[in-house]
Amino acid sequence: MKTNLADKIVVISGGAGKQGSIGQVMLQRLVDEGAIPAIIDKSERGKEYAEQLQRKGIDALFIQTDVTRPEQIESAVQRIGDKYGRIDVLINNVGVNDGVGLDGSVDDFMASLRLNLVSFWCLTKYCFPYLKASRGNVLNIGSKVALTGQGSTSAYAASKGGVLALTREWAVDFVPHQMRCNAIVIAECYTPSYETWIEGLDNGEEKRRSINEKIPLGQRMTTPEEIANTALFLISDLSSHTTGQFVFVDGGYVHLDRALLSQAR
């Protein structure tokens, strides 16, 4: 089955993550399907990624953007619109679990909201006129923390809870325009950042085994490739009648009975 993403203009925030990150893997999978990525990210890696693609004859655009600055987001979207004349898909992929809990400052809490939630709203706001014209769609990248809690990360939990609420709200807003909005909910995904955290622990391997054992399907973490493949499905014509959904790519981590774990061994 074909995704029909060829030549679609796909805006992806957080697309300049490290090699093997969710954002970088999604970027590569978009290119594999023939989509034209417009990368919005603070990291200069985005310039390198775009230039690598351009040297291969692949159209790509990188706009270095601090997504906590609404005026930079507005300017970035305007540049994309000026170059391509349209936007077909927006993937809101920014997310940093910054550990701002009740012992954090109000300023830190608000800064986390600006990064992890307000940036989603701003990008969607400024992309909306283009998406409306193309009958495009929005995909939000969420986290199980919004639903399960985690402890000592109030700001991130609040942000990701807001992301899921906005997913449903925008799905309603988009209905008159024949547009869609969905979210992927991630639990434990083994990214480079996750690996760095594990390696920094005194009992890193023990901790990783402990986490893996709590994941019903396969007793392993989700891969970035599995997130990216689901993202392609949700933004493509293959899911043309799917909207307002929270799609959990987590090996059953959030919903399945933990009694399954003893049976799986």
As for the number of domains, it is 1
**What would CATH call the homologous superfamily?**
NAD(P)-binding Rossmann-like Domain
Q: Please give the number of β-strands.
A: 7
- The low-pLDDT segments are none
Q: What structural class do the secondary elements suggest?
A: alpha/beta
> Could you give the order of the helices and strands?
EHEHEHEHEHHEHHHEH
What is the CA-CA span between the terminal residues?
Answer: 35 Å
Largest sheet: 7 strands, parallel
Q: Mean of the pLDDT scores?
A: 96
Strand order of the largest sheet: 3-2-1-4-5-6-7
Query: In percent, how helical is the residue content?
Result: 40-55%
Separate helix tally: 10
CATH architecture: 3-Layer(aba) Sandwich
In terms of DSSP E residues, the strand content is 5-15%
CATH-derived topology: Rossmann fold
Question: Can you identify the CATH class?
Answer: Alpha Beta
CA-based gyration radius: 18 Å
Shape, per Cα inertia axes? globular
